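Researcher: Structure prediction, please.
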Amino acid sequence: MAKEFKITSLRLADLERELNYLKTTREREVAAMIAEARSYGDLSENSEYDAAKNEQAKLYGRIAEIEDILSHAVIIEDENEASGRVGLGCFVTVRNLATNEETTYKITGSQEANPMERKISDDSPFGRSAVGKGVGEKFMVNAPSGSYEMMVLKVSREG
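Model: Predicted structure follows.
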């Protein structure tokens, strides 16, 4: 069975726009780069041609990646919003019970995760532990760096 990619409808639209751009505008730009590099003569010692072909390979790789994601995408809904429980697409404010530090994260699918922006995948140790919890509930996160206990302070749809 193929892997499912959990994404929001907003991320789906972003990927569709990116795919359209890559298949139209960017593909023409890369083709022009290759044509220009060919005009320089001998292809065996033509670094511009090699660079253009590498760019083309990256382009086609990204197109294939997006098409795979789109063909296996599962749109996540706001299933936990009404219940006030942590779920995909929601923001959760938690307190680390060891350090007393509070942090807000957005729970996303793996395709949207970006820890630097505090977007945490539901497949991560934190995400797996937090999903389904409500305000006031404690949970243990078993991360590679060690275990720690958290408490849910707030669950919302907006950060």
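Model: Strands lie at 5-7, 73-75, 91-96, 102-108, 119-121, 138-143, 146-156.
Researcher: Thanks, that helps.
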